[in-house]
UniProtKB/TrEMBL annotation:
NCBIfam families: rSAM_Se_TrsS. Residues 88-316 form the Radical SAM core domain. GO terms for molecular function: catalytic activity; iron-sulfur cluster binding; metal ion binding. InterPro entries: Aldolase_TIM (IPR013785), Elp3/MiaA/NifB-like_rSAM (IPR006638), Methyltransferase_Class_D (IPR034474), rSAM (IPR007197), rSAM_Se_TrsS (IPR054698), rSAM_sf (IPR058240), Zn_ribbon_HMPTM (IPR056488). SMART domains: Elp3. SUPFAM superfamilies: Radical SAM enzymes. This is Radical SAM domain protein.
Amino acid sequence: MKTTGPDATESVCPACLKRIPAERVLLADEVFQVKRCAEHGSFKTLIWRGEPSLAKWRRPKAPAHPELCYGTLDKGCPFDCGLCSDHRQLPCSVLLEVTDRCNMKCAVCFADAGPKGTEDPSLERISWLLERAMAAAGACSLQLSGGEPTLRDDLPEIVEAARRIGFTFIQVNTNGLRLAGDKEYARRLRAAGLSSVFLQFDGVDDEIYRTLRGRALLEQKLAAVRNAGEAGLGVVFVPTLVRGVNTEAVGAIVRQALQLAPVVRGIHFQPVSYFGRFPEEDRGADRFTLPELMRCLEEQTGKLLKVADFSPPGGEHAHCSLHATYVYSANGGLRPLGGADGDSCCTTDCSGGIRQTVDTVSRRWKLPPGAQFPNAPWSSGAGSCRGGSAPETIRVEGPVDLDVFLQEVSTRSFTISAMAFQDAENLDLERLKGCCISVISPDGRLIPFCAYNLTSREGKSLYRKEPGDGL
């Protein structure tokens, strides 16, 4: 097999988390990260498979270093996060874990959360953390997470505090169980200033939920969407993709989401990463990569979506994510906007890319005022994915009436995006230094998401506290 183009970078040993040299190596149409630890041996992990090629997907960017750093350079990346002066990107989004309690015990979980957890941080402490984040990151987007954040009865008060501090786009990352059964709670969140719901949504078949989440959940997911929409909250579906479990369901997820638009504003796919809680035997054996996702979306939607629609990110490193924006019309047409060969959001100026990313997310993921509620079935047995009578969505290209188009862009946009998070097997320090998603640590530092959640094969963490350590 022909080997071409070794591409030097740095990574960590999956066993001991020591920093070690690494290479990105092209073998046929696959790219692997190859590295060796003097103590624990060699490692080889798939990071990219097929077209569009990694070389075509790359975008050069000028760095934008943070002005206020809570980390001090000592041991070097990834051990001095805060952010530190070596970081090459500004935050586009900060994430705050408001609890580590959860009402589920999913097979896949970044945080290894569960029913017991530790004592929740107080509203006063949360306000201090948010003020620290605002001082360092500015008015970027805020995601309230956990654990399961809706277990906190005072989550609306946390949203209000974030608004007072200056955050204008606030999203809650949730499994949807409380929203499904508590309409008043959804209304309280909207009244407090919540912008959007980031809803765990892995498929349209309960067998998928039984495998990934331990029980049937589809009815509750649809109820959560309905209650969020009635409260005036936009919803983004967030599927965790595991090869052989739901990678053949991405087209069905798209059809379900479009059926529930405009309440559902888009889909943010997340190929599974191997940290937190995930079966050891599945670790990195056959990763599901971003180009495979693009091709699956084209194939499974009958070219309603196409690979050419997707662009590299304008904020984070090009290897991390993808996005596409569409406009859907009342008669069932879906029109792509931009694409890798057209109007890309990428920029050579990292700070400009971040501002554009923040503005775009804020516009696209909120439910627009006066949006018409979807005339859709709210039962899992009646949806278009299961033989319902919803009108077929068709792809539309070519000339368009400008006035109609501008109105539809503002009220009927729909986004498809994906983020390939890193773990100890494939961590690339070049990518990590370009990360624009930070977790607010319990001591008030901003830690790049993949560094914060990084765990060794034995479960050792660089930044996340062990259960029971408190906040």
